[in-house]
Structure formats: structure tokens, C-alpha cells
């Protein structure tokens, strides 16, 4: 493969958190030097849960701002809003027509809904088809995603093979690049960090708010003097993401030795998180000073993305007999 096309998306359902950062944003930023990167804010996907127009708009801009602050370079990667290239919904329909229902009935978001006795919307059911359209519209080769999205990339590959078998080789079959860290990032309550559990730590809160969040991490009731187990502690698991090897080792040793309470360990975690994001916070403040900047980046990204989408859709429409 000469220059791989890399594509990934992030759903603007709130402010990006540490799980998003290590699971999607940081790997995406690393990939921007390794090929032609296309990253988008999946606002159509967010519609399965976000119902307030003002929030959706704010979250979308916020994700873009945070992404740029964290190091996404618009000179290298195309950053755009999914809904700015509405051709993706047309491709989604075309793919729907070759998607067997059982394939979607087997997908985890839908199954979770049923398991929780919630009524899934058709949008939630068809979510993986829209995601396949995202990936296939841009002839993507590599899709860096967390393990939870692997199934969706499998669906995408299946659908691409189906279309290619029916109409000739018109779609590029992508590969998932699975990011190992994403499984292990715990939230405040020890469960996987996720907006739906309300256990997240955002990337750019005020200092006091961040301190408060970190101090609220759930721990067992071991007393200060007791030895503590680092392997099962969320504090240690999070600290690992931010601290140097030496500092991590020191925390683990101090856990085992006893004599230090969880409050002290949380303070160390706070210091590490605050320091880690300091340069990005500065960059974010700088970006936020020019409110037009994010809009300009998104607009230019949309133009570059649409140029690719138009060509793919011409090819597809022609092959399937729409024109
Ligand atoms: N479903 C992804 C998530 O929830 C977001 C997403 C939408 C995506 N379309 C995509 C990721 C295409 C990769 C490629 O995280």
C-alpha cells in the first residue's frame, strides 16, 4: 500500500474525556503522520442519543476544538463534520439494501438495548450500516478504533465484499487497527470510562473540578496504614497513562508498603493529569481566542472530504444502475 487512507470518527455526545483521548484521539493524532488521515465528528451518529440541537452543535464544535488542541494538525489530517458530507446517508441506504437483518441483530449496541428492555430506534439498529458508509465512502484502508468498534468494522468488511461480489470491485475493503489500551481505562467508579456510565474525566475541566473528580474515584475501605493492592486499583490504572515509569513504580511500591491513604495517591494522580494536559490546555486557550478558527478548519475539511465522496458516489451510482 503506497499511502494508506486512514479514517476514524468520534461521536459528539458530550465533552471528550480521557477514555476518548487514549482510545481514539491520541492514536488518530499519531496516525496522521503515517498516511492520508480523515477524521470526522460523527454528528449523524450522535442523533441516536442527543436530542437537543444546541447541545449537538456545541458538542460538535467542542470535539473539534479539543482535537486540535491535542495535536490534530489540519495541514496533515482532514477534520470534518460527518453531516457536512450528506452523501454518506445515500451510501448508507444503498448498503442497507444488501444488509441482512440478522447481521444487525447480532450487533452489540442493539443487543444491549434489548437486554435492558429499552426500545431501540431504527437509527440505533442501523448504526453499523451508517458507520460502514462512513468508512467505504472515503475508500479507507485503515480504521483505528477501540475494541468495542471492531464488530462494526467486521460488518463494514462484509458489506464491502457483498457489494463487490454483486457489482464488481467498486469498494475498498478496510482493515481495523485495534487499539489495545482502550479496554483498560477505568472511570471514576471502576467500570469502563464511558459517558453512559457518567463516570468520565473530561480533558479540559477547571482545576478545581478536575481535583474534585479525581478525589471522587471509588476505592475500597482500606485504612491509611494498611497495605493496598495496586493491580486492581483504578487510581493506579489511570496513573499508568500519565506518569513516568519511575513514578508509577513508586506508587505501586507505596501501595504495597501501607502507611499512605488513597487521598494522597489521588493527589499524585491529579498532579500527573494536570501536568500532562498543560501544553494542550495552553494551545486550546490560544485556539479559543479566535472563534472562527475551528469553523474554518471544519469548512475546509468538509470540502476536501466531499471532493473524495463525490468521486466514490459517482462510481457507486454508475455501478449499481442509478445512473
Ligand atoms: N461508532 C464510533 C464510536 O462510537 C464512531 C464512528 C462513527 C466511527 N463512524 C465511524 C469510528 C467510522 C470509525 C469509523 O466510537
Main features:
323 residues; mainly alpha; Rossmann fold; Tyrosyl-Transfer RNA Synthetase; 2 domains; 3-stranded parallel β-sheet; two-stranded parallel sheet; 13 helices; 5 strands; 55% helix; binds tryptophan
- Record the strand order, biggest sheet: 1-2-3
What portion of the residues fall into strands of 2 or more residues? 5-15%
In CATH, the homologous superfamily of the largest domain goes by the name: HUPs
Tally the beta strands: 5
**Number of spatially distinct domains:** 2
CATH topology of the largest domain: Rossmann fold
The level 1 CATH classification of the largest domain is Alpha Beta
Distance between the termini: 31 Å
What topology does this entry show?
Elements: E1 5-10, H1 18-31, E2 36-41, H2 43-46, H3 53-69, E3 77-81, H4 87-96, H5 101-105, H6 108-115, H7 122-137, E4 142-146, H8 150-167, E5 175-179, H9 207-215, H10 234-242, H11 245-257, H12 262-288, H13 292-320
Parallel strand pairs: 1-2, 2-3, 4-5
Could you characterize the architecture of this molecule?
With 323 residues, the chain is mainly alpha-helical. It has two domains: 5-185 and 291-320, Rossmann fold; 205-276, Tyrosyl-Transfer RNA Synthetase (Orthogonal Bundle), CATH 1.10.240. The chain contains 13 helices and five strands. It has a three-stranded parallel β-sheet with strand order 1-2-3. Strands 4-5 form a two-stranded parallel sheet. Helix 9 packs antiparallel against helix 12. The two termini are 31 Å apart. The site of tryptophan has 12 residues, from strand 1, helix 7 and strand 4.
